[in-house]
Amino acid sequence: MDYQGGGESDDRVADFVKTATVRMTKLKKVVAPYFPMIARFLLVLTFLEDGIRVFFELDAQVYFLKSHYGMPTWLGGFILIATVLLSFVGAGLVMTKKYEVYGSYVLLGFLLYQQVLYGHVSPVNSGRVGFLFRNLSLAGAFFLLIALKRLGEGRSALPGLPDPGDRATLFTYFQLASRILMVLLAVEFIPAWGGFWFVITIPVLLSVLVGYKMPHTGIVLIFIYFLHNVLNSA
Predict the structure, then answer these.
(1) What is the pLDDT of residues 121-179, one digit of tens each?
(2) Do 187 and 214 touch, CB atoms closer than 8 A?
(3) What span is annotated as the signal peptide, if there is one (predicted)?
(4) Which of 3, 27, 129, 139 is deepest in the core (most CB within 10 A)?
């Protein structure tokens, strides 16, 4: 009797796993065409979140520029509003895909601006090293976006670089580099999170690093980054 009961339990588990697998396969077929757009959206989402936060904390940001750099109030306000609007434009261009290269250049400029203005102070929960890794990882992601777009058009990876010839190998290296950059981005917040999120995030990081179930695990990781930004801003 015990053996039969165990067999029925195993059958139920097997049926559940089979049903879940079938549903996940169907969902993947429906969502797969939208993976590139979802990935781009989650990539630029941090810029949208940063920009909205600047607008809500405009007085504090202007005071920071005035106290640290001696900027007049009107100039600090103008620079903040102008750069945030440019970052929104860059994010929109990246989402269009047709102009994603131009949008990537705009957001690269915004990252440089952020690093110059805020890199010498320690942002909350990340520190100078974490902030630097964040910007380097995002910059690397945009350089990869530019390179893949140019290679797809039959050009060199980046302006000024020679054509490597073996594009398949180059694509493989780019994919590896993109995974490493995504994992390095976790340096910004992993030390500040508790044990629960550490346990949740580490398997995803390892999966991304070895390329397991990409781009699914990559999207999960980017969503975790987005969730971190939301919770950190709350």
Answers:
(1) 755 555 566 677 778 878 888 887 887 777 777 776 666 666 656 666 777 777 777 77
(2) no
(3) none
(4) 139
Characterise 191 by phi-psi region: left (phi > 0), alpha (psi -120 to 50), beta (else). Answer: alpha
Which one-letter amino acid corresponds to residue 101?
V
Q: Is the peptide bond preceding residue 162 cis, with omega within 30 degrees of 0? A: no
Q: How many helices (H) and strands (E) does the chain have?
A: 9, 0
Sorted by where each begins, the domain ranges of the chain are 35-233
Q: Is 55 helix (H, G, I), strand (E, B) or coil?
A: helix
- CB of 100 closer than 8 Å to CB of 143: no
Spatial contact of 180 and 205, defined as CB atoms under 8 Å apart:
no
**Alpha-carbon radius of gyration of the chain:** 22
Rounded Cα gap, residues 91 and 106, in angstroms: 8
CA quadruple 167, 172, 173, 174: dihedral, nearest 10:
80
Model pTM? Answer: 0.71
pLDDT, tens digit, 9 for 90 and up, residues 212-233: 766 667 777 777 777 766 666 5
What integer pLDDT is reported at residue 82 of this predicted model?
Answer: 93
